Amino acid sequence: MIELRIEHRWQGFHLDVDVQSASQVLGLFGPSGAGKSSLLHALSGWWTPDLGSVRVEGETWLDTQAGIALPIEARGCAVVSQDALLFPHRSVLGNLTFAPGAHKLWNTPEGQRILDLLRLGPLLERKPTTLSGGEQQRVALGRALLAQPRMILLDEPAASLDAPMAREVMALLLEIKREWKLPMVFVTHRTSELLALADEAAWIEAGRIVHQGAPLEVLAQGGREGGLPHHDVENLLSLTVAQHDADQGLTWMSLGGEPELRLAVPPIDGPIGAPATIALQGEDILLAEANPGPTSARNVLPANLVRRTQVGEEVWVDLAVGAVELRARVTPGAASSLGLVPGKALYLLIKTTACRTLFGNALTGERSGSGAESPR
Amino acid sequence: MLSPSEIQVVQLSLSIAIWVVVLSLGPGWAVAWWLARTRTRWRALVHGIVLLPLVLPPVVTGYALLALFGRSTPIGKAWHYLTGEYLSYSFSAAVLAAAVVSFPLLVESLRIAFESIDPRLEKIARSLGMGRARTWWRVSLPLALPGVFAGTTLAFARALGEFGATIVLAGNIEGETRQIPVAVYSLLQEPGSTAAVWRLSAISVGLSLGALALTAWLRARGARKAGQA
Q1: Which CATH number is A2-229's, of 3.40.50.300, 1.10.486.10, 1.10.760.10, 3.40.50.1820?
Q2: I need a labelling partner for A154 at 20 to 30 A (CA). Which of A125, A198, B125, B189 fits?
Q3: No. of H helices and E strands in chain A?
Q4: Closest Cβ opposite residue B130 in set A46, A81, A100
Q5: Contact A77 B225 (CB under 8 A)
Q6: CATH of domain A235-358
């Protein structure tokens, strides 16, 4: 449980926020300059507001009126920011084992698990300045996990990366969320990141919380008011390899369910059963009322409509396919002519090339066996 | 080869410069750290006072020191009461003069080194569970170290070359305050000492070049380490 009560005045800007959240992952969403990062750093202790209090799990970290301010190092909040902020005078390994206790943890199976997940093995001897942006961010995540924090605070962790790398970092964060069950608070201005990672969202605008709740509802509310800055829906699916089809040049991923459903994606290196994360844009999913027969799309999948949400000028529909849920974007006109209501049976058409593969999971097979056994 | 008195001059120069570095490093560090991190409006004033000896004629600096530390001044009397000796025209005066003149170079190098450390790196270290002291030791210090070395060699070289303030405050006493520049000046007044002037000048050039080369090397190394090169 996080409770933040913050009031601060800068010249011409007033931050006045009261947030409570018991969710594992809280996303702070809004335009730049809205006060998201200040809020995050009131938690980390990097910044102290004029007035306010910060309470986490009933512990008081800050109370300006009572004169309480827990020092940064006593809060146990690992911070991962947009610039990875690796220590330039230390190697990657020196960065990873920097935190007290990290060295010990490094030599345990848990340390190995972090190494595998983030594929840090080949980077250990390198200097941070020789790494790409995505590699730096992976090291920063590893350094944060090895510090065994109570909470991870992420300040636009993917904002300075190009699209494929940003997607990979988000896939890794999803994996960390699932595997480590760590509470996270993260700042983003991208709807796709908010939808992919957050359990709860707080929309901040000009120093005020304007909406708070489930991410989809918060975006829908914001969209109704015309405030949604940039529409972007992306599905990040954790799937396993079901079959390789060399003749057709593709790999089938299991979607689970009964009967077993499969998704054709571009070819992947990895044994049967190896996990991989597939990214799929919401506008790349076509909906059909009946099975259209042969099409150029390799994937024609039966689905059930779970939820329909109006977000700004478009309709987002959540669809159950096998054991997986996908989110598609359609126009209001298409939604009404198809009669999209919860429970409706549909067919989804998805081109193979619309599915992008991310090896975000613990899977690269750098060491024998690690590829085949899914951590789940 | 050098004559015994010339060897004495070189040794005296080196020992003055070493004392300057040893005595100024602590205060220089403190002032530079404060200048790098403070936000008070007094910063500009303090910074100006620290830089003053860099732009003042050294002779004027020497005269100001004499007015502060001379035999009849309160500080001069206190020094005499405590040590039984007079400060002016002594080895200590030669160290003091050289220290004051080289202090701005030391502080500026350290200040720039401290300012170039991203304060977020220190915050990251503390968020990873390091206390203030350990963060300083394992992040701030290693990142500042190349700048510290560079500032130290620069101050050392400046102390070796100090003449104006020294001649006013410490005079020209053989074995006590006659270091290389003062000795060269004296020799120039004596006929037939051209060879000795050349020898001492060559040593002076050698020492200064060595110190500057060391500074340049440390700076380049620091820049490489910080990834700015």
Answers
A1: 3.40.50.300
A2: A125
A3: 9, 21
A4: A100
A5: no
A6: 2.40.50.100
